[in-house]
Amino acid sequence: MTTDSRPIPIRIANQRAYIWDVDDIAVLRSQHRLCGILAGTLPHLSQQNVFLGVPLLLMPEEVVLLVEKKFAVLVNDPNAHQAPTAPQLQKWEEERDEFAKRHIVVNDTKISQNAATRSMSEDAMRKRKERMERKAAQPQQPPPVDMIPEESPAERTEATPTTDSRPSTPSSNAITVAYPVIIESASSTLEWYDTSAATYNTIEAAQAAGIWSYPSNLSERARCGVFRGLWEQGYFLGGGIKFGGDYLVYPGDPLRFHSHFVATVIESPVATLRPMEIVAHGRLGTATKKSHLLCGWNDEKKDVSYLSIEWAGFG
Amino acid sequence: MDDALELPNAPPKPVQGDEPDENSSGDEDSGADWTKLSSLNINRPIIPRRGEKEFEPAPGGGSGLQIHVLDRARSAMFDALRATRSTSSKAMSYAVWYPSIARAHVTLSRGIHFTSMGHSVPRKEENEEKTTKRLELLPEEAIYMIERGALFCTKAGGAPMSAQQAFSEMLGTEDMTLEKYQVYSYLKRLGYVVTRATPPSPFYPVTPPSSTSSTPLRHQSLFSRFTFHLTKLFSRFNWWRPLCINPWLRQHMSYEFIYKSLRFIPSGHNAPLHVKHTSASPYKIFYHLYKPSTPFKKTSPPPPDFSVVVVDARVTQMPTLRELDDLFGELPELPPPLSRQRHPQQGPQPARNQLPPAPPTPTTLWSWISSWVFKEPETPSPLPRRPNPFAALKAGKRIVVIAAVDAGNISFFRFGQGGFEDWPMM
């Protein structure tokens, strides 16, 4: 993959950070060792939670690291979604109608081609003819998707602009021929999506604009510092809440490798550590074949000291 | 002898991908193997098993094989992410999003989703005088439908909304946060019906209040409760001689009586908490959850199967005793779990049924008298079995599910109110 110098736009809305373009997700993962968490539904696998789709959700620590390293910029997403001008909207509608028409034409030629190749025996021809007749008799054929359409004319108000703006394909075709309707995932494909007035290059600028607040206190600064410290040593990091820590520390991409450590952030080098915590961390880490990493953040020196706990295993 | 040792030719057990692997527990994120996804048929998707992982990359950034496998896994993942949301024009529903009221007005509804989503609201159209009822979606319902590719949503001017715009503009309205939406879509993807626990508007259908009243004792004043316990305490037995044997009440001299007498400290969840009310708690029941098997009627939803609280794990402490008590106070008391039948019904016993019916014996006077006199004692009908106290204790009297979301990572916890005072062991 070629090294891309273009900063990745992180879309910020409601203090949460999203990545919507798959190319950006690829750059983040392959070049910057940052994984985030996928949070969306995959359109073709929408009834499961094992594989999820865009958007990619970034941890606040990841956002701070990316912006501080100048790999990414922050975009105030609600502001970047401008209202389209009339010509823009018209152009979009034309393109959509064109797409639908083209698809219908393609389908028609496919059907006729199929008919040509399939007309082998008299019997098949006759059966096909019967089918066609039956189809013509009932104009409402079931759609190819597994959803059964429930036309409810009562809920369809004619006065709203949506109904007006729906594809104005020839009405005779519109009844019988289905064509795919595409819902865009990322807004960057829309012509009226404009980030120029809504982009912030630093965390401070975004904080001043009120769209981003992390890190706002010592605990959050400590988390950012520890995250950065481990990342700079070449590790991949993931969320560690399911292992009783703050991060999971991976030696390589989590797609292929197991994590070696569960890291806990300690806000100060002189913070009290209770013996129970050591026992609990040691216990959980040993049970999951990980070492527990205590990461003490020194807010004055801005550095981290690491201490790992592992059961010695003398029988 | 071990059977496996005696059969050296037995085929090796197939390696199960989802067995807890050696190096890690099964819960790690990104544990799924995306390479197995790409070969799937889109029309009939099958969720593949978890892939296997390695311990660490070889020194110097990984061996050639490791790099190759990683690249394959990554490109499979990115290919799956690039899938477009494309639905047939005959299955697509349409809606218009109104930010001012935080609702999406469904102008054309198709598909089975609307049997459990959306509610009808009377609204006055801009140009018209009369109010008309129309179908509206809450923000989470609209985003979920858009994400599935089942709803084409536009802004009021006709501009199409991308999934990104839906996330940016619909979240943050009507109490909806990203964390709550993630829990919503997670449960919806599993097939649950999810509704709001607190109606966001008077037109939102709610569960009719159940007849089972909550414990009246909770609402008494502290003083009256105190005196109640006090009188209960003194009326029961002589304080100073708790084990005094009264010769006329020998029937009480059982272990049960003695243990009962010793329990003079009020216990159970009806006892008042001596903890002050704190300020606004993040622990509020937000969703009602219905299993896919529960018959659900949108206009009058049944009592929920589960109540779900959603919290942001980054900023929320563990629930305090008071917060849990408040949560349980809103919930209905559940019946103890049904005990499992030890001897399952053997079904129709074919051997006996196949016998030809015995010829009716002639009813003589003697046979009638003998049947009356030598009547076998009727076997007493089996008493309803006492439910297993441990199952009941484990299930709890009231259950609340707390979903803690840490930057996209959802963990579900089930809190049950154990009724230990109801199941004394003696």
TrEMBL record, chain A:
Signal peptide: none annotated. The keyword Nuclease applies. Residues 223-306 form the tRNA intron endonuclease catalytic domain. Residues 120-136 have a biased composition (Basic and acidic residues). One of its GO terms (biological process) is tRNA-type intron splice site recognition and cleavage. It comes from the Eukaryota. It is an enzyme of class 4 (lyase). InterPro entries: tRNA_endonuc-like_dom_sf, tRNA_intron_Endo_cat-like_sf, tRNA_intron_Endonuc_cat-like, TSEN34, TSEN34_N. Residues 160-172 have a biased composition (Low complexity). Its EC number is 4.6.1.16. The active site is at Y250, H258, K290. Residues 8-77 form the TSEN34 N-terminal domain. GO terms for cellular component: tRNA-intron endonuclease complex. The keyword Nucleotide-binding does not apply. One of its GO terms (molecular function) is tRNA-intron lyase activity. Keywords: Endonuclease, Hydrolase, Lyase, Nuclease, tRNA processing. Residues 114-173 are annotated as: Disordered. Constitutes one of the two catalytic subunit of the tRNA-splicing endonuclease complex, a complex responsible for identification and cleavage of the splice sites in pre-tRNA. It cleaves pre-tRNA at the 5'- and 3'-splice sites to release the intron. The products are an intron and two tRNA half-molecules bearing 2',3'-cyclic phosphate and 5'-OH termini. There are no conserved sequences at the splice sites, but the intron is invariably located at the same site in the gene, placing the splice sites an invariant distance from the constant structural features of the tRNA body. Belongs to the tRNA-intron endonuclease family. This is tRNA-splicing endonuclease subunit Sen34.
UniProtKB/TrEMBL annotation, chain B:
PANTHER family: TRNA-SPLICING ENDONUCLEASE SUBUNIT SEN54. Keywords: Endonuclease, Hydrolase, Nuclease, tRNA processing. It holds the Pfam family tRNA_int_end_N2. Residues 18-31 have a biased composition (Acidic residues). Belongs to the SEN54 family. GO terms for biological process: tRNA-type intron splice site recognition and cleavage. GO terms for cellular component: tRNA-intron endonuclease complex. This is tRNA-splicing endonuclease subunit sen54.
